[in-house]
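Q: How would the structure tokens look for this protein?
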Amino acid sequence: MRILSLFTALVLASAAGAFAQPQRPVSIEVIASFDYPGEGNSTSAQGINDQGDITGSYDDANGVTRGFIRYSDGTFREPIVEPNDAAGFTFPRDINNSGALGGTYADANGLLHGFLLSGTTYTEVDFPGSDSTTIGGLNDAGDVVGDFTVPGDFFEKAFAEIGGTAIALEISNAKTSTGYGINNQGEIAGNYT
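A: Here is the predicted structure in token form.
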């Protein structure tokens, strides 16, 4: 229940504007800009770990979405394609400190499914009873957060999978909710409407 109450508290505080503070000038230094190698690629960075390895996706010149890892030394892993991706959509969202990825892919029917990738091993992550699951983040223990929908209900609901146990994150009076990140203490960040 700690996860649920913390998720609700973070979301409620954010919605109430509790984090609004006077604006101060901020200086931003761009450390590196990059695109996945190749012609016509549109690159989107999504997550970074403590070593500076970055994951995300790129759309190639044919509009196919593939995942990538850009290592801290500037080299890239070969394109990441979830083996069950039948729609040209593999979208990693986060990378943990051991280099494991969490993300989403689309099946032949266009339905979304979550996946974890550790080395070359893919693990499917689908919330029980759902027809669509997306992964928003993962921590170093391999715990994940994201959202799911069930047949007949198009409103996304947040969930966490902690130690292999899936938990729906119910928020009173929320129509939709999404989990975007989970840290190593099990604290979850997300939003709801």
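Confidence is low (pLDDT under 50) at residues 1-19.

The radius of gyration is 17 Å.

Upvote if useful.
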